[in-house]
Amino acid sequence: MSGYVGVIVSDPWLQSQFTQVELRGLKSKFLSARNQSGQLTVEDLLPVMVKLKDLGKILTEVEIRAILGESYSNMNDELDFESFLRVYLNLQARATAKLGGTRHSSSFLKATTTTLLHTISESERASYVAHINNYLGEDPFLKKYLPLDPATNDLFDLAKDGVLLCKLINVAVPGTIDERAINTKQILNPWERNENHTLCLNSAKAIGCTVVNIGTQDLVEGRHHLVVGLISQIIKIQLLADLNLKKTPELVELVDDSKEVEELIGLAPEKLLLKWMNFHLKKAGYEKPVTNFSSDLKDGEAYAYLLNALAPEHCNTSTLDTKDPNERAKMIIEHAEKLDCKQYVTPKDIVEGSTNLNLAFVAQIFHHRNGLSADSSKMSFAEMMTDDAQTSREERCFRLWINSHGMVHIAIICLRMSEMGSVHWKQASKPPIKMPFRKVENCNQIIRIGKQLKFSLVNVAGNDFVQGNKKLILAFLWQLMRFSMIQLLKNLRSHSQGKEITDAVILNWANNKVREQAGLLKWKALRTRTFSNGIFFLELLSAVEPRVVNWNLITKGESDEDKKLNATYIISVARKLGCSLFLLPEDIMEVNQKMILTLTASIMYWSLQQPGSELELESILNEENKTPDASPELDGEGETALAAEESNLTIDAAASDSALSPHVGSGEPASQDEKEELTPGDKKEEPTPGDKKEEPTPGG
């Protein structure tokens, strides 16, 4: 839910000495080194600096203590974060001097961590530049800057304003970003540039990229390894987009029976691509299984067999007769050119075993000629196993939310549970786990932790998770995601004052923000379906940041097409503001209660971090905490009975049944007469004919 504001240092010069990756790492070390009273003294600092391998290997503990003594006569002096950074830079300079470097080279450690450990493959850069030139060459805004020259820094210079990366995300997963929300002026000010990068990073997370070590400032600075790493992930997602049974049902040919089809559905795209490759290689008589996109492909034999099997009219056995891997690689590229599959690799990339480029090459071959036929019996079974649309969207949301945290953040969550006495690590088995009962033990501990966190897990056992009960797993993940949202809000202690934050508090906060902006006096209940036009959330976004919504772009939301335009714009604007979201436009259009709550909580979290928001929650918390909070009930069959105050999202509005702002398209906020309100706790209305009746889902 957090945005990518980054670690801010008041001294601009000091800020310029570090990348955001380095600042976040140093901030973490600073916080972890503080004593029980929350302070860090010079004495506390000594062991931290000694343990830093890039300093500890060069300076002894005695030398570090002597250097600290030059600046601080009293080892009990307290240090703030900026003082910590200055000490760090001083030690870097001393270490550089000891190695014979120049005194002014204060970026000694930066060079070690950023340049030496993050080398950039020139082949990858050239390949990605070719991809960008190919797919974005006709873009109305970017075409004046393209084609890029891979031999120069054109790629990194163009990426600095954020437009290129946003456009590339939309190429990978069309419709992810509403391009109306991208700032595309000829010259962008720092605020607009930061907005583009915030939109880019939050959208990248929403399509499956891992961006936990990238901040907006890193992209503004054009940090080469981070920009190339992000582009690599985006292109990979694009190339693997069709590696699933929904888009390529012919993949069922890779398996023999219905049980294997079920396993096929659960395979990651990379694994599925390897399975497809081995399927054709086995048929062609190639006996060695390919298990990776690097060492197993270096000799080129697998490529030769694959291309001969898929395109015999363009290939011949002479590729296998040559003994020189370099010569064989050249012949493979020549054969691939006839299939229009040359773009991503060179003979050198094949021989050297470039993982990313080999994966891209194999994926490209798959797209142009997968060599599969349709088995109607297997395809019908695969179709029977397809989930309903809403379940699939929720599963996608939870998966992306988990992936977005990265291993470091998941570890932090576990540590928090450990501090509460929840996790018994000695009883936990770590992967790979071969014995089934060990999996059950782990899942039983998960259930126990969930109950300690007051999750509703009636008649749910660890074995249900081991057996892959999708309803119960999704129910648990929703409660975990909701718990994470609430914890983030509670951690803003100056706002919550230690009081309980419930779903009702979140929704009432949203209502109050919109009401305060409009000064509405008279409200009346309307059916939830009127909420689907998105006007309420546009008003909420405008309330927390007036400049972020361009009302000239808003539709009336009368047709499904107009509603989708509004919903897509809402998501993009919220991400641009700094909200981390994983919902889809359809979730807003269908008023998916879980996803609506995550959207509202994300906007609330961003708003409460802004200056002057300290008193926003006080009145709501005082009112809400007068009544006890109820928790959702989840039984072993996956049925749900949420308390009204936590689940019923109904809308209040003025007399207009359309709940539409008359200023839509005028560039002005909505009037005081026609506003929607989101109110928890109202009695749930019975669905009317034509309304979609939502089946009860676990945790929803």
Topology record:
Elements: H1 12-16, H2 20-33, H3 42-51, H4 53-56, H5 61-71, H6 81-98, H7 108-116, H8 122-136, H9 154-159, H10 163-172, H11 190-207, H12 216-220, H13 224-239, H14 258-265, H15 269-283, H16 301-310, H17 318-321, H18 325-337, H19 347-352, H20 355-368, H21 376-384, H22 389-419, H23 436-452, H24 462-466, H25 470-490, H26 493-496, H27 503-518, E1 524-526, H28 535-544, H29 560-577, H30 585-589, H31 593-608, H32 618-624, E2 633-634, E3 640-641, H33 644-647, E4 650-653, E5 676-679
Antiparallel strand pairs: 1-4, 2-3, 4-5
Helix pairs in contact: 3-5, 8-13, 10-11, 10-13, 11-29, 13-20, 15-16, 16-18, 22-25, 25-31, 27-28, 27-31, 28-29
Keywords: Actin-binding, Calcium, Metal-binding, Repeat
Organism: Vitis vinifera (Grape)
GO molecular function: actin filament binding; metal ion binding
Structure write-up:
The chain is mainly α and 700 residues long. The strands form two sheets. Strands 1-4-5 form a three-stranded antiparallel β-sheet. A two-stranded antiparallel ribbon has the order 2-3. Helix content is 53%, strand content 2%. The two termini are 19 Å apart. Helix 16 (301-310) runs parallel beside helix 18 (325-337). It has five domains: 12-99, Recoverin, domain 1; 122-240, Actin-binding Protein, T-fimbrin, domain 1 (Orthogonal Bundle), CATH 1.10.418.10; 249-374, Orthogonal Bundle (Actin-binding Protein, T-fimbrin, domain 1), CATH 1.10.418; 389-492, Calponin-like domain (Actin-binding Protein, T-fimbrin, domain 1); 503-623, Actin-binding Protein, T-fimbrin, domain 1, CATH 1.10.418. It has helices spanning 12-16, 20-33, 42-51, 53-56, 61-71, 81-98, 108-116, 122-136, 154-159, 163-172, 190-207, 216-220, 224-239, 258-265, 269-283, 301-310, 318-321, 325-337, 347-352, 355-368, 376-384, 389-419, 436-452, 462-466, 470-490, 493-496, 503-518, 535-544, 560-577, 585-589, 593-608, 618-624, 644-647; strands spanning 524-526, 633-634, 640-641, 650-653, 676-679. It is globular. The longest helix is centred in the middle third of the chain and has 31 residues, at 389-419. It contains 33 helices and five strands.
